Amino acid sequence: MLDILLSQTASGLVLGGLYVLIAIGLSIIFGLLGIVNFAHGAFFTLGAYLALTLVQLFGWPAVILSPVIVGGIGMLAERLLISRLYDKEPLISLIVTFALALLIEAAVRLIYGGIGQPFSPPPFLAGVFLWGPVLITKYRVAVLATTAAVLLLLWLFLEKTRFGRILRAGSRDPEMVGLLGINLPRVLTWVFGLGCAISGIAGLLAAPLWTVTPAMATNAIMPAFVVVAIGGLGSFAGAVIAGLLVGVVVALTIQFWPEASGAVMYLFMALMLLIRPRGLLGERWERFE
Amino acid sequence: MTRNTGLLINRRTTLLGAAGLAVAPLAAPHIARAADPIKIGLLLAKTGQIAGQTEYLANGSFLALEQRNKMVMGQPAELVWLDEPSPQGAVQNMQKLVQENKVCAVLGGALSSNALGEEAKAAELKVPFVCDNAAATEITGKNCNRYTFRLNTPVAVQQSMLAPYALKYGKKWYHITASYAFGQDILKSSRALLKAAGGTEVGVDEVPLNTADFSSFILKIRQAKPDVVVGGLSAGDLTTFLKQWNELGMKGKIPFVEIAIGDTDIWGVGPEAANGTFTKLWDAFNPHNTPEEKAFADAYLKKHGKPPADKAWMGWITARSLFESIDAAKSTDADKIIDALEHWKAPAGDSSYSYRKFDHQMLVRNLAVQVKDKITDKWNFFDVKATLPENPADLDKVFGTQEEVGCKMG
Q1: How far is the alpha carbon of A69 from chain B, nearest alpha carbon, in Å?
Q2: Residue of B178, B220, B176, B182 lying closest to A262 (CA atoms)
Q3: Do B148 and B201 sit in the same domain of this protein?
């Protein structure tokens, strides 16, 4: 039994890692822009489809461009659309970002068609590792390692760079940041782009595992919202812990009670919010109180 | 000097003329109707995991109409396509099609959960409904009604056709099925067949729809060491499962079998990961296709630049059956269309396509197909192993008697 539990935990960590990447972008965008970005899943889809196209055209090394392009599209969307929503009712931003999600999905459907696109892990990552009792594929280890590297880089960026400090300060008190002579609108554009790019990374990592279809975001966006709620809004560490926990809880539920595997994360969220309404590591945010 | 009364006469003439025009449609309704297009509803999902399949179902139905120069019963005809986002949404849209769009019949029903609701609504609205994809046994079984006709072979029948192929691998089966009508139906039928064969179920998982990661389920299957895995997943979920089955190194180690595979499902898996034995209704590369089917495949290739998926044929044959039945009925009256559908026949090689009168189930021979060892054409994944039942005379028997099916139309 120990072997299967360890294998399931490893499998859950990979799934959780993908949830973390999607949730972090969502959390950053909400933290600084105050926008609940319903189009976030669509940027995840874009990441997957761009990776597919880049591999077909230029080979595997080119996939690194996928999140860069997704980030660029995100910045364009922020300039043209999202920036007009900052002083509007929250309901407007929900409707507009939802419409943006539908627009992106329709565009993908128009270009690539509605059916799933074949996309397998790169040949150099084919095969499985058997570490004692734990079975895990080489590609999933690569996903886990990439996720960890992205999170580390993001943490260093937020904690150790000047831009990261502006970002954190802006998320708490945007007016004060503006009064200090910092061009906040430009920062907001970059933040939205960064959030979308991280979602794009999740999309490109998930593409060889999941079915690449225009509707693939459905499987990603709800867990991401759950992870943000459990981890605590705007909390980097909270999102990481919550994402990995959700992945492991889902994997273990599949082992013992498969019928409940779809609902368990919502139950987990409900329990967490009853015990800690601000989430695991959520803090009091004056802006949203 | 007399006043010119021409204007007065003209007024009278004008009034009489206007009155005449107003009552003309009442006096001769057929003249007015001749100019109106005949509207036929198309109720298929436009988004979600099943949208990959419904795109092809719709393509097939639209092509069937184009091959008739968009004419039905000698009049212009059009398909009105509404979404089926959920069972409730599907039922609401069927009502909209009938009451607002004034369609005379409806094609569609991509998912069993939707189709079960749609067929009940069709009976309530008294409109002919030809279900082109859903396979739940109850649709033409205990839930049947005189307004509903169905193409896809019921789950229980397909499962009995597949069982010998599963038993070839052994009697220890693992079931992995979707936790909705289609999957539950497969599980029930497969368990009964396994029990009758004296086999053992070594594991079962009922999987939520839209599962993104099957690795935990696959680890359980690996641990259970079955002789064969009997699947009951649909559309995108089946594609994801087969991709991850290969990724976790299970391809070629434990055989996988499932009924009702769609070409679109396997195309999404890709040549490296695709594997398994399946049943399906039609294959574009089957040399035994009829001349009409070959002409359809050619027209489809010309229009869309790729061969038709089985779903495109399913959309085409059901639309064709409905259009030809409206022609035969010479009317858009529901009762007359139903009567014509019950008598509709089309050649199918050694047998013919037709709907059975007592349950409105189309009798179609299924194909047992296996993924090729080496795939060289990105659209052609399967070797056709058999046409089932092997003797066309057994078709009626294989689909079950009225007592076995449990359909009572009243």
Answers
A1: 24
A2: B178
A3: no
What would the pLDDT profile of A196-252 be if each residue is shown by its tens digit?
999 999 999 999 999 899 988 887 888 888 998 898 877 788 889 999 999 999 888
Residue B399 counted as domain residue? no
- pTM score: 0.84
Is the pLDDT assigned to residue B363 strictly greater than 90? Answer: yes
Q: What is the pLDDT of residues A173-194, one digit of tens each?
A: 777 877 888 877 888 899 899 9
Interatomic CA distance for residues A28 and A25, integer angstroms: 5
- CA-to-CA separations, B404 to B148, B232, B362, B398, B401, in angstroms, rounded: 19, 23, 16, 11, 5
Contact B51 A109 (CB under 8 A): yes
Residues B316-337 have pLDDT tens digits of 999 999 999 999 999 999 999 9
| Residue owning tokens 């003797």 | B391
Residue B85, min C-alpha distance to chain A (Å): 13
- Supply the CATH number for residue A246's domain: 1.10.3470
Is B220 within 8 Å of A251 (Cβ atoms)?
A: no
Strand segments, DSSP code E, in B83-171 are 106-108, 129-131, 148-150
The residue among B226, B258, B280 that closes a domain is: B280
Please enumerate in sequence order all residues whose Cβ is within 8 A of that of B408, keeping only pairs 6 or more positions apart, or say none: B142, B144
Residues B44 and B135 in one domain: yes
Is B234 within 8 Å of B311 (Cβ atoms)? Answer: no
Starting at the edge strand that comes first in sequence, how are the strands of the sheet with B345-348 ordered? B345-348, B351-355, B362-363
Which chain A residues touch B if contact means CB-CB below 8 Å?
A: 4, 7-8, 11-12, 14-15, 105, 109, 113-121, 127-128, 135, 137, 139-140, 206, 208-215, 218-220, 250-251, 254-255, 258-259, 261-263
Nearest CA in chain B to A248: B216
Domain final position from B280, B301, B328 = B280
Instruction: Write down the pLDDT at residue B396.
Output: 87
Of A114, A121, A254, the CB nearest to B55: A114
> What is the rounded CA–CA span in Å between residue B393 and residue B401?
14
Average pLDDT over residues B362-381: 93
Cα distance between residue B169 and residue B324, in whole Å: 44
Contact A74, A43 (CB under 8 A): yes
Provide the chain B residues 176-215 that lie in CB contact (below 8 A) with chain A: 179, 205-213, 215
Using CA atoms, how far residue A120 sits from A126, A144, A205, B221, B252, in Å, is: 9, 17, 11, 22, 17
Q: For residue B386, tell me if it sits in a domain.
A: no
Determine the Cα–Cα distance for residues A119 and A88; give it in Å rounded to an integer: 41
Q: Which residue of A has its CA nearest to B267?
A: A118
Q: Do the bridges between strand B345-348 and strand B277-280 make them parallel or antiparallel, or are there none, so unpaired?
A: unpaired
Q: The domain containing residue A83 runs over which residues? A: 2-288
Residue B394 lies in a domain: no
In 3D, which of A215, A197, A138 has the Cα closest to residue B209? A215
Question: Residue B348 contacts by C-beta under 8 Å, 6 or more apart in sequence?
Answer: B290, B364, B365
- Domain around B125: 36-153+289-364
Angle between helix axes B235-247 and B215-224 (nearest 10 degrees) is 60
Query: Per the CB < 8 Å rule, is B205 touching A135?
Result: no
How many domains would you assign to chain A? 1
B191 and B248 within one domain? yes
Residue listed under structure tokens 């407007």: A92
